[in-house]
Amino acid sequence: MESQVESLLKLAKNRGKKRSPNLISVVSGKGGVGKTAITTSLAYSLANHFNKKVLLLDCDVGLGNVHVVLGLSLGKNLKLVFKGLPIREVVQRVYNFDVVLGFSGIERLDELEEVNPSSFLIQLESITQEYDYILLDNSAGLNRYTLGFSKASSSTYVITTPEPTSLTDAYAFIKSLYKLYGYKDFKVIVNMASSKREGIEVFERLNYSVSRFLGFKLKLVGVLPYTKNLKESLAKKVPLPELYPFDPFSREIKKVAQLEVGEVYTGEEKRGSFIKSLIKLFFEGR
Ligand SMILES: Nc1ncnc2c1ncn2[C@@H]1O[C@H](COP(=O)(O)OP(=O)(O)O)[C@@H](O)[C@H]1O
Ligand SMILES: [Mg+2]
User: Fold this and answer.
1) Smallest Cα–Cα separation from 282: which of 177, 196, 154?
2) If you count DSSP H runs as helices and E runs as strands, how many of each does the chain have, helices first?
3) How far is the CA of 174 from the centre of ligand 1 (A)?
4) pLDDT value of position 137
5) What residues line ligand 1, using a CB cutoff of 6 Å?
6) Vertex 222: Cα angle to 221 and 225 (nearest 5)
7) Is residue 141 exposed (0-12), middle (13-18) or buried (19+ Cβ within 10 Å)?
8) Which residues, 6 or more positions from 164, have their beta carbon under 8 angstroms from its beta carbon?
């Protein structure tokens, strides 16, 4: 009898517990800083190392290239979703995660004007329950897509390199999203760093400007090294963590995924585990 009550309670509890997926928008001020390399590797790691249900969306409107990195052909893509096709119908599966490809080129210049980021986000709502993480690989810079998608995200990963122009553009992006929407949920990845120290210094410069002029703090979630192996991974069309799991880039991506998973899923312990992971990230050897 008691067990019947217990199982009923359990059932009721589980009914109310809708999975809350994490919409992560990956952006940068400047192009070519590694958004696509990072987003595809992160999707791979969350799915394969942490067993998460992941959807990767190529939101680089008009210049999408996730298909190139993953070796897929561009048949079913986001343009069809923008035109009203249910998102479910264009989802493809690779390396244990789902992907919606973007598109390259637009036929008419005004075609982009017809696309409304919010109607797309409403469509996205319909499948969010099915995923633990939805990663959006955006175009570079400030436009209504990158701003719109980031505004709707639970966190925005800002990718920068140590290059000063990349850093100032990252600041401009953060400032705009904050000034427009009061948005502060930024996580920073410094890519192509020559050392962890350099990565941390770059982050500190950005964080200093943000705290001083905008009044809030950023989180550093990863410092990724330059690796020659990314070129080979592109040529072979296999994500780097699959091709070279022990490449320093792959290892660091796994730590980013670990932070993301730990931070989201450990409830009360989340601060502790987040700090522990940070200590691991920066003070334990690669
Ligand atoms: N850490 C890295 N080490 C070496 N090459 C990298 C690294 N990150 C990115 N790249 C390379 O730089 C180029 C641009 O990266 P990509 O991910 O396409 O940038 P974005 O999406 O920001 O435009 C690609 O050829 C990619 O393989
Ligand atoms: Mg890209």
Assistant:
1) 196
2) 12, 8
3) 21
4) 97
5) 28, 31-37, 140, 191-192, 224, 226-227, 230, 234, 249
6) 175
7) middle
8) none
Pinpoint the alpha helices (H) of the chain. Answer: 2-16, 35-48, 66-70, 78-82, 117-128, 144-151, 164-181, 196-209, 229-236, 240-243, 248-265, 270-283
Confidence class of residue 20 from pLDDT cuts 50, 70 and 90? Answer: very low
Q: Where are the domains of the chain?
A: 19-283
According to DSSP, residue 104 is labeled B
pLDDT tens digits, one per residue of 90-124? 999 999 999 999 887 766 656 666 666 777 777 78
Torsion of CA 276, 277, 283, 284, to 10 degrees: 110
**Total length of the chain:** 286
Q: Measure the CA–CA gap between 3 and 1, rounded to whole angstroms.
A: 5
Question: What is the pLDDT at residue 267?
Answer: 34
Looking at the domain that runs over 19-283, which CATH code has it been given? 3.40.50.300
**Helix (H) or strand (E) run with residue 157 in it:** strand 155-160
Distance 139 CA to ligand 2 centre (A): 6
Q: What residues have a C-beta under 5 A from ligand 2, the ion?
A: 35-36
Q: How much distance in Å is there from the Cα of 38 to the middle of ligand 2?
A: 9
Ligand 1 binding pocket mutation candidate from 192, 194, 231, 247 (most atoms within 8 A of CB): 192
What is the Cα–Cα distance from 21 to 127, expressed in whole angstroms? 10
The number of beta carbons lying within 10 Å of the beta carbon of residue 18 is 9
Integer-rounded Cα Rg, in Å, for the chain is: 19
d(CA 101, CA 68): 10
